[in-house]
Amino acid sequence: MKKLILFVSAIASVAYAQKAPRIQTFQELVKAPKVTTKAPADEKILGVTLWSDDFSTPSNWTLDNSGQSGIDFGWNINNNNDGWWAASGIASTSGGNCAELVNGDPTASPATQALNVVYTLTTAQPIDIAALGGNNQVSLQFQQYGARFNDLQEMQISTNGTTWVTVGNNQDKPVLSSAGGSAYANPDTKIINLATFLTATPSPIWIRFSWTTAFPASATNPNVWVTYGWYIDDVKIVTNPTNDLSVTSTFWGSVGLPYYQIPDEQVTEIGFAADVFNGGVNTQTNVKLNINANNGAWTGSSAPVSINSLDTAAIELTTFYTPPATPGNISISRTLTADSTDDIPTNNTMSNIEFAVTDFIYARDNGTPSGSTSNGTDGFESGNLFDVFQDETLKAINVRLPGGANGATVGTEIFVKLYSVDATSGDFVFESESAPLVLAANNLNVNLVMELEPYVDVFAGTTYLAVVGAYSAGLRVSNAGKSEPQTTFFLDMADNTWYYSTNTPMVRMNFDPILSVTEQTELSQAVVLPNPTAANASLRFDLKNTSDVSVVVTDLTGKVMQTATLAQMTAGAQEVTLASEQWAAGIYTVNITSNGSTLTKKFVKR
Fold it and tell me: How many Cα atoms sit within 13 Å of 167 on the Cβ side?
């Protein structure tokens, strides 16, 4: 069931120079907090509070601000808001003092964030859990507020005050940028089970909150030292509950990928799984993952398992759900059951899955636009992997581009492309692309259909990458939902590197059989292969009638790199070699003309 995700992860390191989320830039900062859902009333873990601190006595904590001074750098403890971003700070239960992390002001001119720093906030004295009547069955609980950008926010413990173990972080929070994401709930209650890090009779521990960059390999880049700020309050050590199963991750999909729209010709088995952690004191028995499709039209359950205290079980249905191959909406509910009544049921609830079987559309995005992807002043491509389960002809790729002040720029020239994934090397192999489209206002905030030239016969058992792209600034692609790592990709043309993204762009396959390529008087089905190329390339096209053909290749400055006048070419498929091997790396335009009809193609020389 999870085969494809593991397969892609394996090939990615071979085929591409880098596979990591892209570093956010200053231009993507959100200058004021986005509205977030108000946090529910403090949902305390069931158990006894053994120790707590609300920062009313600042001397209970040791601050190490990496040699920086002033209220604008590192940790400080007071009842003021000192950072550049959040106007009112944390709305914690206790109020009054809190701890706040700041690292300059990236919006100032010049920006003032410090580089190469690690800021830590540590309990001044160790906490003797055993003396307080506890054992290893305890959790660290605290309230926090802030947002994540390129920073790393970690929680650590130590039994000697010198050697530190990271027990948690905020990497599960989405990055807040102009492309989407959100601030943390205010306040956000975080609970970290410490039982797996402690002995049965634990030694006294120090607690530390640590802040630094999440991109240490790019430490000279000021972007990686930007933070919106991080607030901490109401820190506690509490005993663990008796019965507490929590769902730490879930999976659903076909051969590794979830699809929110599935063409009836591509319907196949869908599997379900979850990782479940027993954070309670008691062993949990008869634990099952249960699936219900369309109010009982299909039901299934995993084999029952027992999960010991502090263990995690990977629970997976061995029977698969195959939806009807007729257009319609599908709703899936998921529940976790066990013999015991769970003390904290809210951490094992799973949201419903909603998807549709369609006539022609194949979509990885969930259909609800939220944020967008851009690349500053540089060109890029962005798109999703798709598995094909039945041979079919792909005629178009659908995209959605946002409008408005932060949308795609009218006048930008865009294209769509299709790549296949080489099962041996992992390379993305160019298959086809659309004619260039210069964006007009009516192309934004709509389902934009872009036909491939030529059409592509896609084959069962093959994975494809469908992308939208532009060679220059101005493209912005709507996102809708999240992707598993290394199943959605982003080509940064500035460094010619494929990155993975966890935001899902609205880029879809369209198998509509009635689509037809715009009629050309003399020319059609033009394509440059390979694209990109490091050597010579081949220009292929179809000629309707025997005629003279002119081919002109220019670079971005308009300089003519190659011309060819081909007298009385015969009707049918034609091929012309482009002598690009000796040209500089860059983007080139090919104009093919015959009897007044012109086709334009672009390709990249590496």
Answer: 25
Q: Where are the domains of the chain?
A: 31-239, 245-358, 364-510, 523-605
- Phi (first) and psi of residue 528, to 5 degrees: -105, 125
Q: Pick from 571, 526, 534, 585: which is nearest to 551 by CA?
A: 526
Q: Which of 356, 375, 341, 408 is nearest to 501 (CA)?
A: 375
Q: Answer whether 452's CB lies under 8 Å from 418's CB.
A: yes
- 84-117 in b/e burial notation, b at 16+ Cβ within 10 A? bbbeebbbbeeeebbbbbbbbbbeeeeebbbeeb
Residue 84 has a pLDDT of 95
Residue 144, H or E segment: strand 138-146
Mean pLDDT by groups of 10 residues along the chain of 606 residues? 36 38 80 60 65 98 97 96 92 97 96 97 98 95 96 97 97 86 93 94 97 95 96 97 94 94 97 96 97 97 96 96 96 97 92 96 95 89 97 95 92 96 91 92 93 92 97 94 92 89 94 67 78 90 87 91 90 91 91 82 86
Looking up tokens 């088995």 gives: 269
* Equal fold, 31-239 vs 523-605: no
3-state SS assignment for residue 493: coil
Largest pairwise CA distance in the chain: 95
For 345-375, give the DSSP string. Answer: GGGG--PPEEEEEESSEEBSS-S----EE--
Cα distances from 423 to residues 169, 254, 420, in angstroms, run 35, 18, 9
Query: Which of 309, 310, 140, 138 has the alpha carbon at shortest distance from 239?
Result: 138
Instruction: Please check whether the domain covering 523-605 is classified as CATH 1.10.10.10.
Output: no
Helices (H) and strands (E) in the chain, counts: 1, 41
What CA–CA distance (Å, rounded) separates 300 from 291? 5
* Residues near 604 by beta carbon (within 8 Å), at least 6 away in sequence: 471, 493, 531, 532, 533, 586, 587, 588
**Two tokens, residue 555:** 């670079």
- Which residue's structure tokens are 């220009």? 539
At the fourth CATH level, the homologous superfamily of domain 245-358 is Immunoglobulins (2.60.40.10)
Amino acid found at 457: D
The reported pLDDT for the residue numbered 11 is: 33
> CA 288: distance to chain centroid?
29
Q: What is the DSSP letter of 513?
A: T
DSSP state of 38: P
Q: Determine the Cα–Cα distance for residues 481 and 464; give it in Å rounded to an integer.
A: 20
Cis peptide bond upstream of 21, omega within 30: no
Which class is domain 364-510? mainly beta
Q: What are phi and psi of 536, to 5 degrees?
A: -65, 155
